[in-house]
Design goal:
Keywords: Cell inner membrane, Cell membrane, Membrane, Sugar transport, Transmembrane, Transmembrane helix, Transport. The chain is mainly alpha-helical. The protein contains 17 helices and no strands. It folds into 2 domains: 273 residues, ABC transporter involved in vitamin B12 uptake, BtuC (Orthogonal Bundle); 71 residues. 37% of the residues are buried.
């Protein structure tokens, strides 16, 4: 028998010992993604449940738009709170700072007829100063963030009462109110959908798929584990389908509100900062292990200070968005907003010990709370029971995170 024949008839070599099969890789990929996106799956289930329970009202275009506008300021706070918690701290003052900035905006625009654009800039600077004040005591003096921000919560609430003298101020200028209640103007030929919103949705889809592909290539270049290609395509298809469904829902109403654009811009900026910049990596390092981070050269005091300055700016922005939606500055604004933001961060995957969490997780956690609030209101569940349900959801989310970590560590 010839050598060629022997090579043809010889059996194929067995797979290397210990190398996983395609099915095993797929199962591992599914488990990994379920751990990473568990709350996203939970959000989808909550949406489906309330869509059926509310007789298809939840996902009507008008209600979806209202859902975005009603929760925009909480999502803004959740982004900042997630970063604070990742750094190993907490901020109890953001609700009171929201009220204080809203009161300052009312005093500037309504009492003193200041142009609303200038007032917005000054209010953001006011938030930065408030955050710097708290960050100084926490980072450079060493007082625990719980105590400093608790003092800030009391001080800012008192400052709100002083600025407003116990009275509400209204109305705000129309241009300012459009920050929360306005929509992108229509452009282009008439269609059944809002053209600019559809274009934005397509751009978001392309950017999301490109980011997923880029992340996969980077992991492969560093010889890290990547999901099976089939699961990757399923994931990309799910992202595109979700984004386009949301886009078409908004486009069939009045289009994307300005508040959504503000939130999307913050999401892009802070996702990039936390994943791709030195300061973002330092925040994770500081929250994960402060002594080791300091030994590695992380300037812990400066990082902590900047985290609270950032939280102050975002709280000021949330205060402006809330005041614009409400149309007035009120002494009771921002009540329990800090608890909503903290709950959104923990539901979205933050760890109480710090060092863990993502900006996307903060958005998902905020949406879980927002959909719960909206859905329970649509089906007639009282506010007393709503508080109980949200408390149980928060406990379940944190409990699931703890169980997950123990399972992975075992």
């Amino acid at each position: 028998m010839s050598t060629a024949t022997q090579k043809t008839e010889s059996p194929a070599p067995p797979p290397a010992e210990g190398s996983p099969s395609v099915g095993t890789l797929l199962l591992q990929g599914l488990r990994s993604n379920m751990r990473q996106y568990g709350m996203l799956v939970a959000l989808a289930l909550i949406i489906v449940i309330f869509q059926i329970w509310s007789d298809d009202i939840l996902l009507r275009p008008g209600n979806v738009t209202s859902l975005v506008q009603q929760n925009g300021y909480i999502l803004i706070l959740a982004i900042g709170m997630m970063i604070v918690i990742i750094a190993g701290h907490i901020d109890l003052s953001v609700g009171s700072l929201v009220a204080f900035v809203g009161a300052a905006a009312g005093a500037m625009m309504i009492k003193h007829d200041m142009p609303w654009g200038l007032a917005v800039v000054l209010c953001l600077l006011l938030g930065a100063v408030a955050g710097a004040w708290q960050g100084f005591w926490i980072a450079y003096i060493g007082i625990p963030s719980f105590i400093v921000t608790l003092a800030g919560m009391l001080a800012f609430r008192g400052g709100t009462q002083i600025l407003l003298d116990g009275q509400s101020l209204s109305p705000f200028p129309d241009g300012f109110e459009k920050l929360s209640t306005g929509f992108i103007p229509e452009m282009g030929p008439y269609t059944q959908y809002h053209n600019p919103t559809m274009v934005i949705g397509l751009i978001v889809c392309a950017a999301a798929v490109w980011q997923e592909w880029r992340g996969r290539q980077q992991r492969a270049a560093y010889e890290l584990d990547v999901a099976p290609i089939g699961l990757f395509f399923v994931k990309c298809a799910a992202i595109v389908a979700a984004v386009m469904a949301f886009t078409m829902t908004l486009s069939s109403w009045h289009g994307a509100p300005y508040g959504l654009l503000i939130l999307a811009g913050l999401f892009v900026i802070f996702s990039f900062v936390m994943r791709n910049t030195v300061i973002g990596r330092h925040v994770y390092a500081l929250g994960g292990n402060q002594p080791a981070a300091k030994l590695s050269g992380v300037r812990d005091k400066r990082v902590t200070f900047m985290v609270f300055v950032n939280m102050g700016i975002l709280a000021a922005l949330a205060g402006l968005v809330f005041a614009a939606r409400l149309g007035s500055a009120t002494p009771s604004a921002g009540l329990n907003f800090e608890l909503e933001a903290i709950a959104a961060a923990f539901i979205g995957g933050a760890s109480a010990s710090g060092g863990v969490g993502t900006v996307l997780g903060a958005i998902i956690g905020g949406l879980v709370l927002g959909v719960l609030n909206n859905g329970m209101s649509l089906v007639g569940i009282g506010t007393d029971y709503q508080q109980v349900i949200k408390g149980l959801v928060l406990l379940a989310a944190v409990g699931f995170d703890v169980w997950n970590k123990r399972k992975v560590g075992s």
